[in-house]
Amino acid sequence: MGAEFVREVKPGEAVLINQNGINSIYQKEKNDFLGTCVFEHIYFARPDSKINGTLLYKNRMAMGSELAKEFPVEADMVIGVPDSATAAAVGYSQESGIPFGEGLVKNRYVGRTFIIPDQILRDAGVRWKLNLLSELIEGKKIVVVDDSIVRGTTTPHVVNLLKKGGAKEIHFRICAPPIISPCHFGVDMATKSELLAANMDIEEIRQFIGADSLGYLSHDGLIKAVNSSRDNLCLGCFTGNYPIPVQLEMDKLILETES
Ligand code: SF4
Questions:
Q1: Could you tell me the fold of the domain covering 36-254?
Q2: Cα(237)–Cα(177) distance, integer angstroms
């Protein structure tokens, strides 16, 4: 837009721009509690965004670097699931010394599959979403870095694609902890019964996706990578503890399904 960055909007603040100028109004008394969605750091925000003055691309590289410390493995190449995990894959590569490469390319005409409301459409969307550069991965031990596993729709497909392309071993690394609880603050992720990590342990998930090994970044590793304190973040979907009281879980399609 060419706009000049002034500062971030504060907790509980709305900025009103009208004929009287630029003024802040506050919903309640001012407070300094942030409760920043940590998923913004992991996935939602653009990599060129800054949160609390830090470039997200660098935070994502740091997530990959922490992941390499927590889950090292012998491999020939590190790839990211495009595009959101690329920075974390670069970080994993730099920390581990395993070369970074591209093994998957994204079909830019397919959107985010995890918010498609129907499982059949989600499965089809995943098949159209990624293509393989098989000549680059054939016969190699591959570390695959991704940002999250939500329902487990995409990940088994990625493993399958890499296996068909001739990858010798596939080591999946997730630059976030397991998602065990839904979001109550507007991220239409999934219900608890749909979340893979809410219903399986890590070994069961590894078998389900078909990888040779699987590692998730720890809570402490994530907090270190985003350079914040636990008190200033929302980690609700990773811990089940939310920064404010939340409503009981409701199905987003309840009005469509109830007769
Ligand atoms: S529950 Fe998860 S997705 Fe929702 S605001 Fe908190 S960290 Fe973000």
A1: Rossmann fold (3.40.50)
A2: 9
